[in-house]
Every structure is written in C-alpha cells, then in structure tokens.
Amino acid sequence: MDTSKEYLKMCEKAGEIQRVHQWQEGDCFINPSGFLGFYCGQCSSEYGFYEKSVWLPRQDQLQEMIGGDIQYRWDRCNEFWFDITHSVGSFEQLWLAFVMKEKFNKIWNGEEWVIK
After folding, report:
1. Please, are residues 91 and 99 in contact by the beta-carbon 8 Å criterion?
2. N or C, which end of the chain has less CB nearby within 10 Å?
3. Cα Rg for the chain, rounded, in angstroms?
C-alpha cells in the first residue's frame, strides 16, 4: 500500500473519487491530523473523523473502478503506461492516474489533476 506524500496528495486532489466513495471495512485513510489508519465501521460513529479523512484506494479498488475483466483492465492500463509522460512511484499511483484519465479525462501534473 502506497502511503507516500505524492500518493497522499494525488488522492486528496482526486475529488471525483473522494466524493462518491462509500467507506468499507479496512479502507486505508489519512485524517487531517496526519493519522494513517484503516476504516472500522464499528468505530466510525464513535470517532466521526472519517468524513474529513482522505481515502487511499488500494490497487484492487482502483482496478474495479475501470470495470471489465482482469485481462481487459491489464491491457488498457498497459497501453496507458506507455503513454504517460510522468513517472509513477507505485502501482497505486499508476492505477489512480489511469482511473482519472479514463473516467474524468484528467492527468496529474505533479500538483493537481487537470483536464487533458
């Protein structure tokens, strides 16, 4: 699981996926005070800080957003890999960039997601 500063920033700025995310048991997040943790449904009402937290999607969650079978996802992402102009530090960063391009026609410029 990528918890690098770059991935945290990429996720935080990906409002399109943050707004529609429904928390699931075990989701990785970082809250405003910098606490990195995993979502616990039993604790959510008790602590209530998840709504201000940034969801850090796992690679499998990002792949599911693309749809299709595993081979389709891999083939599409493989094509994308060769087209991107910036380097990615992890597969989570690659898949998040792919999701944002496929679903929202946005690319990461190092600071924010911009329409291509």
Report:
1. no
2. C
3. 14
